[in-house]
Design goal:
Elements: H1 5-34, E1 36-38, E2 44-46, E3 77-78, E4 87-93, H2 100-110, E5 116-119, H3 121-126, H4 128-136, E6 140-143, H5 156-174, E7 180-181, H6 190-200, E8 203-205, H7 219-229, E9 235-239, H8 243-258, E10 262-263, H9 266-274, H10 297-300
Parallel strand pairs: 3-8, 4-5, 4-9, 4-10, 5-6, 7-8
Antiparallel strand pairs: 1-2
Helix pairs in contact: 2-8, 4-5, 7-8
Bound molecules: zinc ion (ZN).
Length: about 300
Amino acid sequence: MRTSPITQLGFLTLAIILMLGCSSTGGKYENSDNTAYLDGEGKRRGLFGGRQKKKSAPLQNPNINIRVDPRLARSLTYSRVRTEGPFIAMTFDDGPHPVHTPRLLDILKRRNIRATFFVVGTNARRYPQLIRRIIAEGHEIGNHTVNHKYLSRISIEEARAEVLGCEKAIVAACGVKPRILRPPGGHINDRVKVWLKKEFGYSTIMWAVDPEDWKRPGSDVVARRIISETDPGEIVLAHDIHGPTIAAMPRALDGLLSNGYRFVTVSQLIAIERRSVARISSNDNNLLSSSIPLNGKKRDQ
Ligand SMILES: [Zn+2]
């Protein structure tokens, strides 16, 4: 059967419409392919680096190279140190956690911040790869017992097993022996502190700032407390096993950085206290000899 000229015209028109449609769609993607490329993370970025769309980079903690010497820790216990500089130490207890700790490590890395993790032995055994990542990224690891036991409420034999067990789990995971311990729940007494120092060489690390994040007051409250309650030389307590705590960290850390604070590990903080400004060698970080103005309200008071 022959098709009529009208039907032929209809087919031709339809074919032209389809071709135009396809070529215009193809052209659209072709154009965007020409003006965009995939970066290493598989994200589509514009020809000019997608600057308009790019999230602004967070504030950066400077590189702070302070030689740590365990012999510098002369005190039995620390919750803060005396320092003229704006140095503080963030500490995270009870991890590592398989979800929250990696998120926190990413947040810290983006800001070039080194923190201190007081890990529980059972978690260190379960997630040795996270212990290795913590060390590989320049953070410090401290002992928080194997089973989160309150050291002042158990026998000396039990306490020894708790402390040694956690130490062994950390060493087995990353090869680095911790030199500081935080007593679970803050339950400690002078007798146990002396024993920890004499038998293991551990300094007992408490805290000066407690946002009570474990009570889950919400990320806003946790961030606000950390920013408003922290003073130079202080050790800040938080827990990397709670999602809202991790969610509070970008704001808390950026707030502290913009107020002029600089982050170091607990052992670096202890080392800072032991140095007098006059004895600082030129090799040491300039931060120690030049005072960074604190923009926060506390400095003005
Ligand atoms: Zn704890």
